């Protein structure tokens, strides 16, 4: 808390013509900064960024002049030139690093441009989040100065003709500033290891030598690593070896399915900190304990737009229509789902990132991730989101006192109609029919459209229980281990065919 509160009432600030720190003003300032930096690029010249900068309504003009892009469209028209080494395409200079990203369902890798400007912006947001830890009143202060175990991709990147490519976490670890090196674990040598199993083995081997205060990574892989350490050294909990462990920084997937499993591995409560760090940029972070959601990074290196996630803007496969309705930060509403568009300091312009979010607090600009534009089920109009599924699984898990760390759902034909097929990871004793019935009932309570269609064209729900190890083995078989890889909550297309063959 500040020693002297110098904030002024809004009316006085307005009378004195002091700049208001409104989300809209912050975002327009970011947009103009991006437009100014990229105005001499091919993209900037094509869409007349100079003219947009002179407009009194830069945001609306930008929306009118620049089309919406998904990955396929922006790669075909622009980004492929940067892979060929051409400079000044969508962002000034040559692109020397690309994050390889396949999401959770796509087969082919996507090459997402990474620039120094983007990395600098990411670091600024990371520092802001660290500073926000002072609002976590019950934290262990000693833990902040301890080691940070960051479980990510290899820093030994693939070398292209004019660039390096790899997992974003690997690129980030490779660029760790010198002052952070003493805190950074597992260290640069282990971080270069490409083989995931060898990397985990090296971490387990070195675990007694480290004093860890933070663990950072995707919940499933962090949990697996901690389980191996506990097993190797015959420990009761992870705190027997890392007594100062106080924080778990996670993101990219709902933590609720994993929480019960984590609590079995620790000897004292952890502070869970959620982040939204995508390959395209550091989107949002939790800046206070027990917050409803994560605060968007509005004043840094990303300009946000939001497309209402409905049938008018997306087709049945989750593809965005031509000229969708797009809103700026001051136009969104609480309780509605939106797909995010990003314009970033790496040459992504009005780029559909593929995630859907919901505003839980518009005043604080706090969001939760509700799913993916292509990870929802609406075979017959049931409009079932990943958020609905996560809530149903959590409610049923708590009711039955079981642990369900992973699951996936597919829409399947059923006679002349349709059904949902659930595959659930659970190592506890539970009756599959009871679990199926309870999840179905919870979804009817959570989603009115689902309830209606369950009495109509969505004729049945099937459920198969599998060991958690089967889900991890499948990810191994697809080469999707560690780093930012998450198990898809909805299966479609070739991934579904591969999964069915694997399970059978």
UniProtKB/TrEMBL annotation:
Domain GH3 C-terminal: 388-492
Top-level taxon of origin: Bacteria
Coiled coil (residue ranges): none
Pfam families per record: GH3, GH3_C, GH3_M
Gene Ontology, cellular component aspect: cytoplasm
Gene Ontology molecular function: acid-amino acid ligase activity
Domain GH3 middle: 298-362
Protein name: GH3 auxin-responsive promoter
Native source species: Pseudobacter ginsenosidimutans
